[in-house]
Amino acid sequence: MLLFPNCKINIGLRVVRKREDGYHDLETIFYPVYGLHDELEVEAITNNTTQYYTTLHDSIQFLQEGLAVDCPAEDNLIIKCYLRMRAKYPQIGDVRIRFKKNIPFGAGLGGGSSDAAHMAIALNELFSLGLTQQQLAEEVRPLGADCPFFVYNTPCYAEGIGDKLTPISLDLSGLRLVMIKPACGVSTKEAYGGIIPKGTSKVLTDLKVLNVLNDLTILSALTNDFEETVCKVHPEIAEIKQRLLGAGAIYAAMSGSGSTVFGLFPTPSSTILHNSTQFYTTLHNSTQHNAEGRTDAQLRLLHEEFASMVIFDDTLA
Q1: What is the rounded CA–CA span in Å between residue 116 and residue 147?
Q2: 196 vs 232: CA distance, rounded Å
Q3: CATH number of the domain at 2-167, please?
């Protein structure tokens, strides 16, 4: 069984309060990006062929490809997910796993959480566990706050520590998404260092109530609180954000706790732009088409300047 665990971006992120357990309550919108994904192939073991594979816990044959990860195989969330679920569901048998890492770690894109969620989905299918999406979300919740999101894998308003989800009608299809990952990584501890909770964001809570985002004036009002502290330590992140805005992005922000910075760029097929009064007044204006040409030219310059740091550039489906 072959799955493609995708990443996510955060549209706005507010640190609301620090909890008694030491964690922080957040408000954010998780938006899935299907075009940037890992590869996860899982099969029940029917023979003892182990060439190129490493045997783990006597029940897993594991092969990792692609980007290096920052932990030994035993600590990979894929393996942790398998061990947790096997202990609970005896019908889960031995497995062979081929894992190719394409989503950078320490990037604020949720790659590890997505891997764990998709592993749970694979086990549910392979061994006919019959678990619902809600049950799968509960299974992976202990592995990471945003793991449940990747079970549903649809735009969601997230609160609590990021695990309380409400589906939201947010359609960014047609927008061009450019993601740049600088060489630096940002740990969760570093991101939260010095953060000052700001209470509830009216813009984000209004979106939860309205269940729709269809105007650019709302989009531009959404910010990521982590940028305030992270950019002081890593000024290159702020520089990349400003370069994306200067290239014509209608929205740019750091994703999650960083370090990836993304920009959303208009195209004639952008759903949200056609629903926006701001866009409607300029759509048929010749300066709009000139602006698109300038954006393409500026993005080509960004590609040349940041080269290997550009990890995604494509139109959202």
Answers
A1: 7
A2: 14
A3: 3.30.230.10
Cβ-contact 31, 150 below 8 angstroms? no
Per-residue exposure over 17-28, b if at least 16 CB sit within 10 Å of its own CB, e if not: eeeeeeebbbbb
> CATH 3.30.230.10: which residues of the chain?
2-167
Distance CA 111, CA 291 (A): 34
What secondary structure letter does DSSP report for 53?
Answer: P
CATH 3.30.70.890 range(s) for the chain read 176-315
Q: How far apart are CA 291 and CA 286, in angstroms?
A: 9
Starting from the edge strand earliest in sequence, which strands make up the sheet with 60-66, in order?
Answer: 2-3, 39-44, 95-101, 60-66, 54-56
Query: Is residue 2 within 8 Å of 61, Cβ to Cβ?
Result: no
Of 25, 38, 115, 146, the active-site residue reads 146
User: Measuring CA to CA, which residue among 111, 219, 241 is closest to residue 172?
Assistant: 219
**Three-class secondary structure of residue 31 per DSSP:** strand
Contact between 8 and 38 under an 8 Å Cβ cutoff? The reply is no
Say if residues 42 and 126 touch (Cβ distance below 8 Å): yes
Domain 176-315 is of which CATH architecture?
Answer: 2-Layer Sandwich (3.30)
What is the reported pTM? Answer: 0.90
Q: What value, to the nearest 5°, has the Cα angle with vertex 182 and ends 199 and 25? A: 20
Profile the chain (317 residues) by mean pLDDT over runs of 10 residues: 98 95 94 98 83 88 92 94 97 97 94 98 98 98 97 96 92 92 86 89 77 65 92 94 92 94 84 53 43 74 88 93
Q: Is 8 a catalytic residue?
A: yes
Report the 10 Å Cβ neighbour count for 98. Answer: 17
Give 70: exposed, middle or buried? Use CB within 10 Å, 0-12, 13-18, 19+: exposed
Q: In angstroms, how far is the first alpha carbon of the chain from the final one?
A: 24
**Which tokens go with 296?**
């393409």
**Residue 6 in tokens:** 């995708």
The separation between CA 312 and the C-alpha centre of its own chain, rounded to angstroms, equals: 12
